[in-house]
Design goal:
Radius of gyration: 28 Å
Number of helices: 39
Structural class: mainly alpha
Strand content: under 5%
Length: about 850
């Protein structure tokens, strides 16, 4: 546990440094940002360290990290000075608040430590950083490449001479822990995963605590510093006052631990329950037992009935592939639908995992902004202020510093996991728009224009603050394409989001306190949510038929072999008919989502400009359904529903060519927001809904949550090898057993090459053992995982230049030519192991070329390293 405790201590240092600032920045939240101080501190320290290294002011050293930490502590102390300086009574408000909030402080710290230590134990039983079933080799390569770099941008271990072309900020953060702790990267990788799990748990707890705490009016006595405009009004009395801690714990559970319903279905299937017709209808791969367009091909990995614990190999993987698209020929097309617990279970330190605590931080920022505008009295003076920079800054806590911090937090998402930036910028825009509408007494062009200007300022500043990242960033993204033939089946959607969706629906029912008025608004919005997507697809078809560019694109698509195989030389009219047939055969998810979005919009419309009788004021007791946290829950639901709705009709063009990656990215963030809303919904139903609705809602959600917990319980037991293997946190220890020569070569290079040198090894495809030396040392090789370099850079130009020379070096280059090629590519070491011998047919005779032109410096277990002379 010493490695775990070292990471815990570092995380605490970051949190303490940022606490005074968090206490002021999140002054409108009941928890005052205490739980969010951990990701906030890590973000600020990492940003200053990265920026200083990128601009040449700082080196990539532990001293530079500590300097960044001290600078963050100083800025935090200055901006949050109202908390630690003595007030008129001689007290220090921050210390007084901490004393009055013991329950929150103890809960956050206990939760963080338990989550960190607990997940480290789970990881110790499945620690291997392997090449299959994930991208751990890539992630370890990034971590080692960053640790090996003297300045930023960091070197790309799989394309020597180039910097990483990826959103690598999360790996910089992990490198801070690795450097300060002194742990080997293979150990830091697994402890880091446990740390990010703990950060996600406490950040989700913090947001859930704040949503419920604001609803219950909790924590007012402990708020020693609060502007008059941000006082919480007394809420309508509920049946209970439970609140904030329960809401926080439920949020942590739903965001980070709960699984989808596939795990429960795995157990049912394993028990042999359910008719074959049901499993065929459900059509989840490995559960339908038959595959192919007509379900006639047996599935080899479909075991006979057993017990509650599924015995099928890698059964837990299927939960991330619930959705199944089918092309025009009926063939299955893979779709990724991960959720947070699956990601932590898989153990990949991928950007979508590294960004999770900071996505929750962005949600907290949006919630704080909305609550700051409550009680929402019409403020004509504020509405009349032109949207100048000074006026914009005044909308944020801490003024201009607050604006910069919001931009830093939102903009950091682009550097962490680029897809998240526009998503949470949209949520922040909704919160700001609602606040502007409250202040101006309703929707108006002035409120809308003010919101747009403010969001443009946040977005622009968010990009500007991370400009060194954008300067060298390339992407595979190539625009937006219409999704004609891949509708989501409602059954798959229900399996994916069942518990969370049910909680959200019951919350919408509870918030619909004006039945007829809500129904009329719902019908008005429904026409838009149903017809606009259809109009979009029709317009896309018209563009494809009527414009020269569209006709050329259609012609090229029809000439593709896969299209001819699936649709023959069918006319566009026939193809259009096939698209219509597919859409009409599975319209239910689309119609459900359209109806839910219209419902949320109807409820929000009623809350934009509350009637005089319900206008919130400091002395009033507004209905809980019209409170600021309930409004924020609606905004979060709307954002999540729009994400999952959008992939029914569009997807982002990338190297995959289908909507697989778009569903993955959008569903993941939808899960986070729906999980927070589900936690809020449970407390709301228990305390504020009618008794019949509360009983029905809690019973339904409770049963679905129980089914959703099958997955984390059973999959953890399976993934941890039933806790029957020797535990270790060293993710590379297995290599000493499987390939001692390679393990020794890695150790030799780490010991003998302190700086940067180019090491040649066999390149190869993604998810293979290729690139194993560069991944584990951070020393760049000429070419690593080619498929991933294509994804990162959007082309293969550089790979195509290098590949022939790599083959020449290994296959045929004689000493003179070999020396020229080594000089041309600045190759310092050449590795010749079993992988290279198999890939290039190297015999003992042909390997003698290296001995004549280079110095043999390592030779263990048939793995040799040759060093360039001179």
């Amino acid at each position: 546990m010493l490695p775990v405790l070292s990471f815990w201590l570092i995380a605490q240092l970051f949190a303490v440094a940022a606490l005074p600032l968090a206490w002021r920045l999140f002054a409108s939240l009941p928890g005052r940002g205490y739980a969010l101080a951990k990701p906030l501190g890590l973000l600020l320290v990492s940003y200053l360290f990265w920026l200083g290294s990128s601009l040449g002011f700082l080196g990539n050293t532990s001293g530079a990290i500590l300097a960044s930490l001290l600078l963050v502590a100083a800025l935090s102390a200055f901006l949050g000075r109202e908390g630690w300086q003595r007030d008129a009574t001689g007290r220090r408000p921050l210390l007084g608040w901490l004393a009055a909030s013991k329950a929150l402080v103890i809960a956050v710290e206990a939760l963080f430590l338990v989550a960190l230590a607990g997940w480290a134990v789970v990881r110790s039983y499945s620690p291997d950083i392997t090449t299959a079933g994930g991208e751990k080799f890539m992630e370890l390569a990034f971590l080692n490449g960053i640790l090996r770099s003297e300045r930023f941008p960091p070197l790309d271990p799989w394309l020597s001479g180039f910097a990483i072309s990826y959103y690598y900020f999360g790996y910089v953060m992990l490198s801070l822990f690795t450097t300060l702790s002194g742990l080997a990267p293979g150990v830091a990788f697994n402890v880091g995963l446990a740390t990010w799990f703990a950060l996600t748990v406490v950040a989700a707890f913090g947001v859930g605590y704040d949503m419920v705490g604001a609803l219950a009016g909790s924590g007012r006595e402990a708020l020693a510093v609060r502007a008059p405009t941000t006082e919480f009004p007394e809420p309508a009395a509920g049946r209970c006052g439970p609140g904030p801690l329960a809401g926080g714990l439920l949020a942590a559970l739903f965001v980070a631990v709960l699984g989808n319903l596939e795990g429960f279905l795995e157990s049912v299937h394993s028990l042999g329950l359910g008719p074959v017709a049901f499993w065929r209808w459900l059509d989840i791969k490995d559960l339908n037992c038959l595959s192919g367009p007509n379900f006639l091909e047996p599935v080899a990995n479909c075991p006979s009935p057993g017990g509650v614990l599924p015995e099928r190999f890698f059964w837990w993987w299927r939960a991330s592939r619930v959705l199944t698209d089918r092309d025009l020929a009926g063939n299955a097309v893979e779709v990724i639908d991960e959720f947070p617990f699956f990601s932590f279970l898989l153990g990949d330190m991928h950007p979508h995992v590294l960004a999770l605590p900071f996505a929750l931080l962005a949600i907290g920022l949006a919630l704080a902004l909305l609550l700051r505008a409550w009680p929402g009295q019409p403020d004509e003076a504020a509405a009349a202020v032109p949207p100048t920079l000074r006026g914009i800054a005044g909308l944020f806590p801490l003024g201009g510093a607050g604006l910069a911090l919001y931009a830093l937090g939102l903009g950091g998402l682009a550097f962490l996991n680029t897809w998240d930036f526009p998503i949470y910028l949209f949520l922040l825009a909704l919160a700001l728009g609602m606040a502007a509408a409250w202040r101006s007494g309703g929707l108006s062009w002035a409120a809308a224009s003010r919101t747009l200007v403010v969001m443009a300022a946040v977005a622009g500043l968010g990009v500007l603050l991370y400009l060194p990242f954008y300067a060298g960033f390339q992407s595979q993204a190539g625009g937006i394409l219409p999704n004609f033939i891949f509708p989501t089946r409602l059954a798959h959607f229900a399996v994916m989001f069942g518990p969370l969706l049910a909680a959200a629906i019951f919350l919408l029912i509870a918030l619909s306190d004006e039945g007829r008025r809500t129904a009329r608004r719902w019908l008005g919005f429904l026409s838009w949510t149903v017809l606009v997507p259809v109009a979009f697809l029709l317009a896309a078809l018209v563009v494809g038929v009527a414009t020269p560019g569209g006709q050329e694109l259609v012609r090229r698509l029809r000439e593709l072999p896969v299209v001819q195989e699936q649709a023959g030389m069918a006319s566009l009219l026939e193809l259009g008919g096939e698209v219509l047939r597919i859409r009409l055969s599975s319209p239910w998810a689309y119609l459900l989502l359209a109806g839910l979005i219209a419902w949320v919009l109807a409820l929000l419309a009623a809350r934009v400009a509350p009637r005089a009788g319900n206008a919130p004021a400091p002395a009033a007791r507004p209905p809980a359904s019209r409170s600021a946290p309930a409004t924020f829950a609606l905004l979060a639901v709307l954002t999540a529903l729009l994400l999952v709705f959008s992939v029914e009709f569009v997807y982002l063009r990338d190297t995959f060519g289908v909507r697989m990656n778009t569903v993955f990215k959008f569903y993941y963030q939808a899960w986070v927001m729906l999980a927070l809303v589900a936690a809020f919904a449970v407390v709301y139903l228990a305390c504020y809904a009618g008794r019949v609705l509360a009983m029905a809602g809690l019973a339904t959600v409770g049963l679905l949550v129980a089914a959703g917990l099958f997955y984390p319980v059973l999959s953890t037991y399976t993934r941890a090898e039933r806790f029957a293997v020797p535990p270790t946190l060293d993710g590379t220890a297995y290599l000493s057993r499987l390939s001692p020569g390679d393990a020794g070569a890695v150790a030799w290079l780490q010991a003998q090459v302190p700086g940067v040198a180019t090491v040649l090894e066999a390149p190869g495809g993604s998810y293979t053992y290729s690139g194993r030396i560069s991944a584990q040392t951070g020393l760049p090789t000429l070419l690593g995982w080619e498929g991933h370099e294509l994804q990162w850079r959007g082309n293969t130009e550089e790979q195509d230049r290098r590949r022939p020379d790599v083959e020449t070096i290994y296959r045929s280059a004689q000493p003179a030519e070999l020396a020229d090629l080594l000089e041309r590519w600045q190759i310092d070491y050449v590795v010749v192991g079993d992988l290279e011998r198999q890939a290039y047919g190297i015999t003992p005779q042909s390997e003698a070329r290296f001995a004549r032109a280079m110095d043999l410096v390592y030779d263990v277990d048939n793995t040799r390293i040759y060093r360039r002379r001179g």
